[in-house]
Amino acid sequence: MNTEICNKSDYPYFETLPTRWADNDMYGHVNNVVYYAYCDTVVNRLLINKGWLNPLEDKVIAVVAETQCRFFASVAYPQILEIGLLVERVGNSSVTYRLGVFKQDSVEPAAQGRFVHVYVDSQTRQPVAIPAAVRQGLLALTAV
């Protein structure tokens, strides 16, 4: 994982997500596993909203190959989160995303994640090249 900690201004794409009561654990903060669900949600919202993924019909789909998360500050229900996304790397069949989890109106991340998708044939699950239109869109979201 790239160890550089990004601030809010480093991310070209954002989604706003509310925390939920069920996200909190017995320690009164969002449980660590929930951050992975936040990241998965944001990546897939991007892909679906841009028209780059229709998981029920596409012949090529993206599956998760790796995830990682570093934590810097606690988050708890009922906070609203702003989750930034940038693309670290676009390979032949894989893409690496960096995601920053920010408390609303904060410029420093509460957490930072890494999420790797591998594009595969939806039937065989064998790696395939990222579709050209998707590749072009992802490259527009790369870190400067």
Structure write-up:
One of its GO terms (molecular function) is fatty acyl-CoA hydrolase activity. Keywords: Hydrolase. This is Thioesterase. InterPro entries: 4-hydroxybenzoyl-CoA_TE, HotDog_dom_sf. It comes from Paraglaciecola hydrolytica. With 144 residues, this protein is an alpha+beta fold. It has two helices and five strands; from the N terminus they run E-H-E-E-E-E-H. The model has no long low-confidence stretch (mean pLDDT 96). It has a five-stranded antiparallel β-sheet with strand order 1-3-4-5-2. It has helices at 32-49, 132-139, and strands at residues 13-18, 60-71, 80-90, 94-103, 111-121. The relative contact order is 0.25. It is globular. 18% of the residues lie in helices and 35% in strands. The protein has one domain: Thiol Ester Dehydrase, Chain A, CATH 3.10.129.
Which superfamily, in CATH terms, is the homologous superfamily?
A: Hotdog Thioesterase
**End-to-end span in angstroms?**
17 Å
**Oligomer kind:** single chain
Mean pLDDT: 96
How many domains is the backbone divided into? 1
How much of the sequence lies in strands comes to: 25-35%
Structural class: alpha+beta
Strand order of the largest sheet: 1-3-4-5-2
Number of strands: 5
H and E order? EHEEEEH
Describe the biggest sheet?
5 strands, antiparallel
Ranges with pLDDT <50 over ≥5 residues?
A: none
Number of helices: 2
Q: Which overall shape is indicated by the principal axes computed on the Cα atoms?
A: globular
